[in-house]
Amino acid sequence: MAKTYQNLVFESREMLQDTDAQDPRYADSTLLNILNRGLQDLGRIRPDIAYTLFNANSLNVPEVVVSGAGAGQVNWDDPFGLEMQFYPTMLSYLVGVAEITDDEYTEDGRAALFMQAFHNNAIGI
Amino acid sequence: MAVEYTEVFDTILQDTITELPGALRAVAKRELRLTLREFFEKSHAWITTVENIALPSGSTPVQIDDADANTEIIAILKVSIGNDTDGYNELAPMPEQPNRVETGDKPWAWYMSSNPDEFVQYPFPTNAPTDVGRAVVALIPAFDTEQLPRQITLKYYEAIVNGFLARMYAHPNKPYSAPAAAGGKRQAFVTAMGYYAAQRKQGYNGAPNWRFPHGWRIAKAGQ
């Protein structure tokens, strides 16, 4: 079964150790915002990722919303629209940016680690 | 007669996956399509003869249609007039429309009115000729076709792969970017286009390159 954007958000929660649905540290809307900014960032450095998804002549990647997607948007339970090779790339971004909030209280630099992984995945081997 | 369309894009793409880490299939396919079009546009290696072209009177242009959705005509290489009983006479190519307006019973020349597939007979026929036209044209794959001719894998495979990889390796800031390799592949591709263009000019069988009558000439690059 195809992975969805929702799967991506959930997988990021696993890595963030934030799987308690009753008392989440990060709201879905927060992670979705991060995901959308990540897609835009990935679209900037790898404009080819959304080659078949760009709306007409725009370079805008689709915005992921929870439901009721309009023009230029996709629902988060839709199949992940990029090639699967960019799924871990987006996962790294999502976890990395989310970790920035937590990094204030730690010294292990996980945010930087994941952001570096995002960058390497996108334009490196 | 040989079956023309036996190849598809996926065969070539599949072969090059290992050399293009991080490449998107849709992007690769587009570059492959552009490579094929460039190869056949510059080499004129893919030709066909269009028969029974209705010829109008006067200076009305004739647009040649090869009636194949998988191809587009990229050049007219030769135009003849005649019929199957008496044979055909080749018309001489003229570089541009003559200043002199000349009419006659039968044209002996032609010039391009709209590149790459439209020409006009000269002298302008007073009446529509009862004879028909025959044209040798060069083809490229249509922009949206999924079908490719058998000659691609039979003969031009290495050249096409080199040209395709050159385009991909030249992409900036991708995991598969390799500017130095792109230059080498591109050089091999360009050389191959010249090699196959030369073969085409000699009819693929080493034939001497002259035409008669009205067609005495040395074929220039791409002709």
Provide key terms for this protein.
heterodimer; A: 125 residues; mainly alpha; two-stranded parallel ribbon; 2 strands; 5% strand; B: 223 residues; alpha+beta; 2 domains; seven-stranded mixed sheet; two-stranded antiparallel ribbon; 5 helices; 11 strands
Give a structural overview:
Chain A contains 4 helices and 2 strands. Chain A has one domain. Helix content of chain A is 49%, strand content 5%. In chain A, strands 1-2 form a two-stranded parallel sheet. Chain A is mostly helical and 125 residues long. Chain B has 223 residues and is α+β, with helices and mostly antiparallel strands. Chain B has 2 domains: 5-44 and 144-201; 47-141, no CATH class. Chain B has 5 helices and 11 strands. In chain B, the strands form 3 sheets. A 7-stranded mixed β-sheet of chain B has the order 2-10-4-5-7-8-3. In chain B, strands 1-11 form a two-stranded antiparallel sheet. In chain B, helix 2 (25-43) crosses helix 4, helix 2 (25-43) packs parallel to helix 5 (179-201) and helix 4 (157-169) runs antiparallel to helix 5. The mean pLDDT of chain B is 91. Classes of the chains: A mainly alpha (125), B alpha+beta (223). Chain A binds chain B through residues 45-46, 48-49, 51-52, 83, 85, 123-125, and chain B through 21-22, 24-27, 30, 171, 173-175.
